Amino acid sequence: MKFSWDSTQITWPRNPKxxxxxxxxxxxxLTKPGSKAILLSYGMKPDVLTLEGLLYEKGKSDSDxxxxxxxxxxxxVYKEVTISELDSNLNDTWIxxxxxxxxxGGYPNVYTYKMEFYRGSEHHVME
Length: 127
Hints:
The protein has one domain (2-28, 38-119): Elongation Factor Tu (Ef-tu), domain 3. Helix content is 10%, strand content 48%. It has one helix and nine strands. The protein has one helix at 62-74, and strands at residues 2-5, 8-11, 18-22, 25-30, 38-44, 47-55, 80-84, 92-103, 111-119. The strands form two sheets. The chain has a seven-stranded antiparallel β-sheet with strand order 2-1-7-8-9-6-3, with helices on one face. Strands 4-5 form a two-stranded antiparallel sheet.
């Protein structure tokens, strides 16, 4: 799995253990006495992609993992990231909306991570 932006490209050493994609709509309901509700559908919400997994690379120190993978991704929260080498329908440009990582106790140089991305028909990043 690769992440890229501007002239930066990061090849993640392991694929995520969990890939969740959520598609939802904006739907409101109006009650109708004596009948089922009337539904009003206003369109799609952004696609949401959640990636979770383990970050470990043989021969890399904690400092290497932080500098090579974790800190660059942390710097992309709220910005566009292009994902490639995942599932073909997910290879696209997304907004990284959330990034959490945690050091795994008892194991040297091992982290878990959870990333959440949004994809819309257009992206406008306010900087």
